[in-house]
């Protein structure tokens, strides 16, 4: 007699290229017989989660593994720096070749993408409409991708207010698993505070703030399991390391989550 598959609400945090580790986490969960029937994501988590919800995660992972530094650079459609370095259209147009646009409400599982409305300083939750529109808003990293202008709102990356959106899980009876991309850093013994430059100090401060937001969300909405990816596991654009990051996510999931009995 086959055992019933345990249903999972999977929360995928934001964090640039290190979010490719989400793919490895999902691969491990599926191998262990878990059934993911809800995904909540912001930024790269919304993208990977959207691919999974569209049954195109394998295609996304295989495409990511082929990327070189040069190919990543070619995906950057530079624009007026007043509004952001990149339009983001070239990335999403390329993703159209990997998986199609669909309405979120037509997906086989519950999918939620989270963006930030800077105009009104609030979270915006996408649970219906175009999955591409939701992803585009959710990945709009301030200063990197141009924001998405809508009526009475100005949408940017969901991670600005909530890098780990556990508060938007709808299926409370599910096993909740969070993938936090703002885990404690891999220690580098050559790094000392006195050697911080203005740039590294700015980034260190930003990551410290994100870690505190994620830690607060984990405390307020404690998941059953948390897979923590070190925040310095990869820089924001290191998608050429996708194969390594997928393997990292797989191993971190295996260490953090108990296999099903």
Topology of helices and strands:
Elements: E1 7-12, H1 21-31, E2 35-42, H2 44-53, H3 57-66, H4 69-74, H5 89-95, E3 110-117, E4 122-126, H6 131-138, E5 148-150, E6 153-157, E7 175-183, H7 198-220, E8 225-230, H8 242-256
Parallel strand pairs: 1-2, 1-7, 2-3, 7-8
Antiparallel strand pairs: 3-4, 3-6, 5-6
Helix pairs in contact: 1-8, 2-3, 2-6
Question: Could you please describe the fold and organization of this structure?
Answer:
With 261 residues, the protein is of the alpha/beta class. The chain has a single domain, classed as Cytosolic phospholipase A2 catalytic domain, CATH 3.40.1090.10. The protein is built from 8 helices and 8 strands, in the order βαβααααββαβββαβα. Strands 1, 2, 3, 4, 5, 6, 7 and 8 form an 8-stranded mixed beta sheet that branches. About 2% of the residues have low confidence.
Structural category: alpha/beta
The rough form would be described as globular
> Which CATH class is shown?
Alpha Beta
**Whole-number tally of structural domains:** 1
CATH superfamily: Cytosolic phospholipase A2 catalytic domain
Helix content: 25-40%
Number of helices: 8
N-to-C CA distance: 14 Å
- Approximately how much beta-strand content do the residues carry? 15-25%
Helix and strand element order: EHEHHHHEEHEEEHEH
- Say what the CATH topology is: Cytosolic phospholipase A2 catalytic domain
Radius of gyration: 18 Å
Low-confidence stretches: 82-87
Q: What is the CATH architecture descriptor?
A: 3-Layer(aba) Sandwich
What does the average pLDDT come to? 85
Number of strand elements: 8
Largest sheet: 8 strands, mixed
Organism: Sphingobacterium corticibacterium
Motif (GXGXXG): 14-19
Motif (DGA/G): 157-159
Pfam family, one: Patatin
């Amino acid at each position: 007699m086959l055992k019933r598959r345990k249903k999972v609400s999977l929360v995928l945090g934001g964090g640039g290229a290190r979010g490719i580790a989400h793919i490895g986490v999902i691969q491990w969960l599926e191998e262990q017989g878990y059934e993911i029937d809800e995904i909540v994501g912001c930024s790269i988590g919304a993208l990977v989660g959207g691919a999974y919800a569209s049954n195109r995660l394998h295609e996304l992972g295989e495409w990511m593994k082929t990327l070189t530094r040069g190919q990543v650079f070619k995906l950057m459609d530079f624009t007026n720096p007043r509004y952001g370095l990149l339009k983001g259209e070239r990335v999403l147009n390329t993703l159209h070749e990997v998986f199609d646009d669909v309405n979120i409400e037509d997906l086989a599982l519950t999918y939620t993408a989270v963006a930030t409305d800077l105009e009104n300083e609030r979270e915006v939750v996408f649970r219906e409409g175009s999955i591409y529109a939701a992803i585009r808003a959710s990945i709009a990293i301030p200063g990197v991708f141009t924001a998405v202008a809508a009526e009475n709102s100005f949408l940017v990356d969901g991670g600005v207010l909530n890098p780990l959106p556990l508060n938007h899980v709808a299926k409370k009876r599910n096993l909740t698993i969070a993938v936090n991309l703002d885990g404690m850093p891999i220690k580098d013994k050559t790094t000392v505070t006195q050697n911080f430059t203005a740039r590294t100090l700015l980034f260190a401060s930003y990551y410290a703030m994100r870690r505190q937001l994620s830690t607060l969300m984990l405390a307020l909405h404690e998941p059953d399991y948390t897979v923590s990816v070190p925040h310095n596991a990869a820089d924001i654009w290191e998608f050429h390391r996708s194969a390594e990051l997928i393997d990292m996510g797989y191993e971190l999931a295996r260490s953090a989550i108990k296999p099903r009995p």
